[in-house]
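Objective 1b: paired records.
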Amino acid sequence: MTRALLAVLAVLLAAPMALAQSAGYRIQPGDQLAITVLEDDTLNRQQLVLPDGSISVPLAGTIRASGRSVESVESAIADRLASNFAVRPSVFVSVVSVDETYGTFPVYVMGQVATPGMVEVEPGTTLLQAIALAGGLDRFAATKRIQLRRTDATGQERLYLFNFNAVERGSAITSMITLREGDVLIVPERRLFE
């Protein structure tokens, strides 16, 4: 009985912090969740949200957590556990830590940009967006000769050329270049009469 009271007290003290963390927040892969079941402390645990967006809870099985609110996950766990208890269990879920880098990957921007170096981008980021993230082109950039260097799965490097001037003039981009992990963008310096 005292263990149950201590668990209730711990949950009540942690609740304001959990609500502040999770207000409007959608759980994502890589997040660490704390799961508390008041009726059975053997089910209490910290659980990592897997890359496929699921968590595994004893007696409840696999539950999709990614993209859902904390309250929605609490309800789903309680619903799954209900058949194992005389009354619907009280389940509390809080976000212990957030993986802010999940889903991002590094690309490298060199040469005539405002801030060269590594840039963390999300899947679907284009070459133009990466240039913008690097602060844009500087006044000495050779805008017709921007290079994308990409190493494929076999280890062979491929070179793609990009003409920013044509895009700036409104030309249609027939194939927008979407970046991949490890891509290197090189913005060379403009030549004398270029």
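Objective 1b, second protein:
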Amino acid sequence: MGLMDFIKGELIDVIEWTDDSRDTLSYRFPDEDKAIKNGAQLIVRESQQVQFVYLGEFGDTFGPGKHTLATDNIPILTRLKSWKYGFNSPFKADVYYVTTRLFTGNKWGTANPIMMRDDDLGIVRARAFGTFDFKIVDPKLFLKEVAGSDQNFRVDEFADTMRSRIVSIFADALASAKIPVFDVASRYSELGEALLPLINPVVAAKYGLQIASFIVENVSVPPEVEQAIDKRSSMAAVGNLNDYVKFQMAQGMEKGGSSGGMATELAVGLSIAQQIMQQQGMPTAGAARPAAPAAGTAELLSPADVAQALGVPESDVMTIIESGELAAKKIGSSYRIKRSAVDEYMAK
């Protein structure tokens, strides 16, 4: 081997990288301590960008194409190396290939609940997960803040870090968007699109990335909040609570109550029958007063007596008592209801 062949063997005349993976974000070209010669060919394929780094400083950036490394093509390196008369000798520099294609199907999720302020429910703890697609739009910033000088930086090395950063930004963006918890489940696609303008400026400024799509697949709340949401939905389906309670009472009468409350059940039943007859224009037997209570039956009833007699939950009876629709007197810590008050309520 002659001297010229030895010298040529110590110089790099072609720089290229063929990505045979689907998960490499950046790749540092292995120079094997060789220098890049004047006129070397730099090959950059589609979905790639090349960044030169000289002594820790960013040099020239190249997009897709075939480039000849000469003075005109590397003005920043020429200035950094203080070549007064242009690039005419071999030089050493780190060459980084950065993949700019879209990386799809990356998963994200909240390890801990996010505290949300909701107008309907107050402070709510929510968990969320989904997927996102991203790409590198600023190679210099990405290399500086994320990849560093890593020889072969892959998605899996970045996954946990990116996921935590995305979740943090997602939590802030969700709080800023002020989307009610009741609306989140029905607006997953809108939520992702609404959050993109909030997330992208942050990840672009900090990491040189762009989130192409952000998909929210699920947002869940604690079981007690789910029960509250279900209860609210049930109330909306019921409509008029007063009519619903009356319906429940009528259903309870059909099923029959206990023998201890039979007199009350009969009295209320008679009141309902009189009301139906009046509405249909039929004459009522006797007067507008309900039947007299049976002998030995107490005039004052507890909410449990009324509920047991009518076959409805005691909570329904307490609801109409607390709303003031059913007159009751509180004695100590308990309510007592006159039979006549029950009759008057059913006659409304």
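Residues 1-7, 258-263, 285-298 have pLDDT under 50 and may be disordered. The chain has twelve helices and 15 strands.
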